[in-house]
Design brief:
By secondary structure, the protein is mostly helical. The protein has one domain. Helix content is about 45%, strand content about 10%. It is built from two helices and two strands. A two-stranded antiparallel ribbon has the order 1-2. Helix 1 packs across helix 2. The longest helix has 22 residues. The structure holds zinc ion.
Amino acid sequence: MDGGCSSKKNQYYLETEAIEALIRSHISFNKPATSYYLCTECAQFHLTSKGEKHLILSKPDIIKRIKREQNSQDWSKRLRKK
Ligand SMILES: [Zn+2]
């Protein structure tokens, strides 16, 4: 995490961290990342919004988790408004 990569993207040392970040981007963003890749420059993982959607995003338990966490986010936003 010392910013040695010219991509300027978040770096994930572990693939599991990249997957987690990918899922969280789908919970939080309207235009989420679609996949992740291993960077040849920094040898860590980055998210990308180009290319095919990663297979993990089609897993029923992952889809369920994204929906559930989106719903709970909506609720906390609504509660914060008032
Ligand atoms: Zn990199």
